[in-house]
Amino acid sequence: MQTAGIGAWHGSEYFAPLMLVMSGQEKRMMVHSLGEIADALIVWPTDDGAEYIAAVKTCLDAIQGNISAMAARTALIRAAKEAGIPVIAAVH
Predict the structure, then answer these.
(1) Rg (CA), the chain
(2) Strand, helix or coil at 30?
(3) Over its length of 92 residues, how does the chain's per-residue pLDDT go in tens digits?
(4) pLDDT at 28
(5) Other CB atoms closer than 10 Å to residue 48's CB: what's the count?
(6) How far is it, in rounded angstroms, from Cα 11 to Cα 54?
(7) How far apart are CA 62 and CA 46, in angstroms?
(8) CB contact burial 1-12 (16+ within 10 A = b; e otherwise)
(9) Residue in 15, 6, 35 with CA at minimum distance from that of residue 91
(10) Sheet-wide strand order for 18-22
(11) Taking each helix axis from N to C terminus, what angle separates 69-83 and 34-42, rounded to the nearest 10 degrees?
């Protein structure tokens, strides 16, 4: 398992991209990396869901290098499902 490490988390360990379609302004957000997961969670439309809180914790663990960015990606998908945010996954 490759982990990001605290010094290089923003641009490391790219994965199959996701597109989040946020409601309201039809805002679309592409997520390719751990840094972009963090960015998405900062502008998340709600902050009270159990999956959202789990995604934030998972993202922090990945930033610290304790788990992979793929685990954070999976947590983000679960949080999006909980919040009713459509996710479009690209296939390589």
Answers:
(1) 12
(2) strand
(3) 444 444 444 555 667 889 998 876 558 888 999 999 999 999 898 888 999 999 999 999 999 999 999 999 999 999 999 999 999 987 65
(4) 86
(5) 7
(6) 22
(7) 22
(8) eebbeeeebeeb
(9) 15
(10) 27-31, 18-22, 87-89
(11) 30
Residue type, 24: G
And the tokens for 14?
Answer: 């790219």
Instruction: Dig out the tokens for 2 from the structure.
Output: 């490759």
Q: How far is CA 47 from the centre of its chain?
A: 14
Q: What does the block give as tokens for 45?
A: 């439309």
- The pair of three-digit structure tokens given for residue 8, joined into one six-digit string: 């290089």
Q: Distances in Å between the alpha carbon of 64 and those of 6, 14, 20? A: 5, 16, 24
Instruction: Give the span between the Cα atoms of 28 and 32, in whole angstroms.
Output: 13
